[in-house]
Amino acid sequence: MVFLIRTVDFMDSSQNIITALHADPMNADKVHVFIDGKHALVVSLDVAAAERLTVGQACPPERIRRLEAAQEEAQVYEFALNFLSYRPRSAREVEQRLRKKRIAPEQIEAVMERLRKKGYVDDQAFARFWIGNRQTFSPRGPRLLRSELRQKGVPQDVVDAALSEYQEEQAEREEQSAQVAFDAGITDDEPAPGSDEATALALARKRMRVLSNLDPVTAKRRLSSFLARRGFGYDTIGPVLQRVLAPDEDEQTDMDDV
Question: Are 223 and 204 in contact (CB under 8 A)?
Fold first, then answer.
């Protein structure tokens, strides 16, 4: 993958002196470098500043090669930032994206290090984002969340820590909700908002709109499978099934007694 723009062979120069630095009229972030009166290459303002380019400086071939490498890395870095602008990514996602562009491994390594130092790539922050986003827009259980994060390349210890943190926050919310209900004299036995059981129950009730025309046994089997695919364990699925299906089963029992 070639990012750098070059317009002349600087190796023909005899003095290798920077004779002019011109801002690009179409892109204020770009600087045109002239060596011995000839246009040699284009670099970003960041590269020009980092290299402290000034007119009159010597710019031998080895320095030109360093500028080339720095400019290519800068453009790979900008490409990575653009990829990250749509949503947070895991480190593996960014690396895979750069590899697909056939960027040299050493450039990928350098860019990933810069991204980590700047905090743009942080698997811990990504795991927290992923869990929170999923639970807000597409709720699922811990098992599926763990699987998704591992597929994104997040290390197991980071996944475990993020889920543990989420569950602790969840337990705290449940305790606060229970206390509020107790203080208000509310005796409703609905699971605490934000708990796994409450999330699974909401999904189950919505799913039952589709399964309501089935016989109880089939509906129970399909609902159980649905919740399992969403990553909930049977310790959560069991109580939810009892809540959702109990009225139907009680009604069926009453009918049998008639």
Answer: yes
